[in-house]
């Protein structure tokens, strides 16, 4: 290489199209959809399918999570409904059962079924009978509440 290769060449201004150059410049280069300098970030248009796919996946994860939460709430409500039904069943049996005393609010009582199928309410717990178990079957342990409903304890 010789030194002549490095000498600047004259620019012919008559060959420059100023209108064409105006199209390639902007007052706000940060708003261009492509990098305006050599070191600028490359901006690629996104694939619309990928954007929608990620959005659908996020939506499905969120709705699945919400459905799981609702299912757990339904299970809790179903258990509560079963508990109320058990409470109604035991309360009805207690009020039909033979009682040889007046139950006191806040005390615990024991509902038994006799061999003949009738029920009786007792103050004696199943483990307190010893060998002389009087009744065929222990039905429930219940506590009399202030509103005269029975809370089933077992």
Tell me what you see in this structure.
With 154 residues, this protein is an alpha+beta fold. The chain has a domain at 48-152. 36% of the residues lie in helices and 14% in strands. It has two helices and four strands; from the N terminus they run ααββββ. A four-stranded antiparallel β-sheet has the order 2-1-3-4, covered by helices on one side. The protein is rod-shaped, with a radius of gyration of 43 Å.
Work out the helix count.
Answer: 2
Which strand order does the major sheet show? 2-1-3-4
Flag low-confidence runs.
none
Tell me the helix content.
25-40%
Structural class: alpha+beta
Distance between the termini: 102 Å
Keywords:
four-stranded antiparallel sheet; alpha+beta; 154 residues; 14% strand; 2 helices
Task: Chart the SSEs and their pairings.
Elements: H1 18-23, H2 48-96, E1 108-113, E2 119-122, E3 137-144, E4 150-152
Antiparallel strand pairs: 1-2, 1-3, 3-4
Task: Describe the structure concisely for a colleague.
This protein is an alpha+beta fold and 154 residues long.
